[in-house]
Every structure is written in C-alpha cells, then in structure tokens.
Amino acid sequence: MQRSPVPPPFHALAALALVVLLVACADATAVPRPTPWLWGDVNCDGAVTTADHDLVMRHAVGLSIVPFDTLPGDVDADGHVNTRDALIIQSFVQGLPTAPFRVGQPMPASPCAGFVPPLH
User: Is 67 exposed, middle or buried (0-12, 13-18, 19+ CB in 10 A)?
Assistant: First the structure.
C-alpha cells in the first residue's frame, strides 16, 4: 500500500477551504436580490437602518463622506433630503409611528442600479 505524501487531515482542510472559496465566489457574482428597494435605504443594503440615518444626517449638515443616491432619502416627499428626513428614518428604525411618510415602503424603481454599498 502506497502512503500519501500529505497527511489525511490536510486533505479535509484543503477541501473545506475550496468549498469556502467557491461559496464566496458565488456570492460575488450573485444575481441582484428580488426584494424591493425601500424608501430610506440610502446605502442600498436592503434595509432601513441607523446607517441610513447617519448618511442622511451627514448629507443634511454638509459632512457627507460617502456618495449615495439621495432619492431614497427623501422620505417626506418634499423634494429635499434634510434633517427632517433623518429624523423620520431614525423614528422608523426605533419602531415609532411614521405612517404619514413613505419610509420603509417599496420604491417604484431601483435607485441603486449599479450601486455597490460600501463595506462595513
């Protein structure tokens, strides 16, 4: 019987590494998700979160450091993205009533086409 030059545990580890690599590559080329784009999701990650509030607030006070499409940030539909929109987004995130506003509701079209969200 001929012995393998590499110990068997190494084969298992190499196989596991290959599977992880294949899964990571599959994620990188995945088809865009079918979930709707949401009003208030300015970083295009699929959810309205505190990160969206922070981006809108920074934009409103002139400290925007990450480019983003301001369209989904206009949650009060007044044509401007300002601190009021940031407050509405934060209220939504905290679970407070935001019924008269469109935050968290599906958008009619994707404002994020071709946009790659920044890594966290």
Answer: exposed
What span, in angstroms and rounded, lies between the C-alpha atoms of 2 and 37? 59
Amino acid at site 57: M
Distance in angstroms (rounded) separating the CA atoms of residues 73 and 87: 11
Residue 101 Cα to chain centre, angstroms: 21
Looking at residue 75, which CATH number applies to its domain? 1.10.1330.10
pLDDT for 115 beyond 80? no
d(C-alpha 22, C-alpha 2), whole Å = 31
State mean pLDDT over 75-84.
Answer: 96
With tokens 């539909």, the residue in question is 77
The count of structural domains within the chain is 1
For 38, phi then psi, to 5°, come to -115, 145
| pTM, to two decimals | 0.67
Would residue 117 count as lying in a domain? no
* Any domain includes 20: no
